[in-house]
Amino acid sequence: MNIDAEENERADMYLELMIRAIKQSQKKGGFDNYSVTLLVHHWLKVGQLLRSPLYVREYIIEFVRSQAPVANGGRKASEVLLTRLQRLVGYPVTAGVDPHVVYFNEAQKAMITFVDQYRKALAQSDAAQLNAFMERLLIIRQAGKVY
Q: Where are the beta strands (DSSP E) in the chain?
């Protein structure tokens, strides 16, 4: 996919919003359905801009289904995600396989792991909040795109 400078700048804007949202949630003491749904929405928009307009249809399922546990070296999933996003933001997109592709894939994996761990924590503590969260994800899935 050919990505122009404007799409790259818009993707960076969404990445910056994600970084800011993670830091704010960490300061507040944790994440809630709204903040995690917002992160998912922003990440899917980044995928649309940097990968394909069909990115949402291809990857929203990854946020809905359960994932295999991932070792984070003792770090919280939100910290790993924050690190991956910070590495990706501002990195210019070029054609072919380059560090940007690797950074994007690492951030994507960290995002999926973060959402999976959030969902599993809700499953253990608050079934009503889990259902509300899953409904939000399913709305995005049914739409097949983010605006």
A: none
Total-model pTM: 0.88
Number of domains in the chain: 1
Report, as an integer, the average pLDDT of 20-38.
95
pLDDT digits (tens, 9 = 90+) for 76-120: 999 999 999 999 987 766 555 566 788 899 999 999 999 999 999
- Which of 143, 147, 138, 142 is CA-nearest to residue 63? 138
Q: Which domain covers residue 18, as residue numbers? A: 5-143
Q: Which residues contact 79 (CB under 8 A, 6 or more apart)?
A: 72
Residue found under tokens 């289904």: 65
Distance CA 56, CA 52 (A): 9
Q: Are 141 and 61 in contact (CB under 8 A)?
A: yes
CA quadruple 72, 97, 64, 126: dihedral positive or negative?
A: positive
